[in-house]
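User: structure tokens for this one?
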Amino acid sequence: MSKSILQYILGKLEQRKQENNFRALRVTKGLVDFYSNDYLGFARDEQLKARVAEEIKIHHEAFLGSTGSRLLSGNSEYAEQLEKFIADYHGAEAALIFNSGFDANYGLLSSLPYRGDTIIYDELVHASIHDGIRNSKANAVSFAHNNVADLEQKLKTATGLKYVVVESVYSMDGDFAPLHEIAALCKHYEAGLIADEAHATGVIGDNGKGRVNNEMQTLARVHTFSKALGAHGAVVLCSKELKEFLINYCRPFIFSTALPFYSLAAIKCSYEFLSESKERREKLFALNTLFKKQILPKENFQLIASDTPVQSIVVSGNKNVKDFAAKIQEQGFDVRPILYPTVPKGKERIRICLHSFNTEEEVSKLVAIINSL
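Assistant:
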């Protein structure tokens, strides 16, 4: 490495440290999990692991790796049947599996909207959506979070084909998008609605099908398998025509090696397991109620209103929120600080994720620690 390049790298890293937002990989053991997206405990469930192992045993002829992209050697009858199964599960016409939620959002937004079109997105959408929009040639404008009136004003002045992008459940605040109102506006202004259902999948709706239902006309919706389903990958649910478009124009799909059979088997088994997990979802929301009932209002932090397993406590300032999280971790509970620039400056927060495998005692102890700080 040249000296000038090394100096640039070291300078950028030092800048992060000075701003208190330096990132580093870490491994923690022995702490109670209040930070992962494994809402229903599928990722650690022994019964589900056994189902996946049996599915692999049944299909013993499957390769260890997929050997190529779907358009080359990586496609299979199993993958196509799984896509049909997922589409039927969510009441969609078609489904296309991607390697990750990031790939799905990025690929969809970077390939479909084009020069002269307009993308209108909620200001709090995920980074993958921002990156997809940035790589498209379309005009783009944000609207105030969950503000339907602001969205309508942006729709009135939009040019070309119009696309509206939201999350059905927001990953950092844990709140709901007003989907019915947004869908009605999109219908009125002939805009295509794209909904990211990542944090609703498995948790919200009948059998965890998400918040979008047949009454809402959506152009596409994205479900991820890496959160409540405990697996990996994602799917775009859409029309048959849009699926064919993505197969032909979506670069992350065209040029990525396909998911291996093991991942597909895990996705299939997780969906089957989901239909049997009503009690887990009920317990999850009971713990959510307990958490909100016991936490006390404080001057030094703000609990963001949420009816989902994501409960965020705003503690302004990167240093302050890191110190706050460290004190909770010292008591044996693993929570993570979310720093600027991941969230807006002044909105740094402790993001607490509740799980069906957490106990009432653990939730009460965690709240007692927070209340004491």
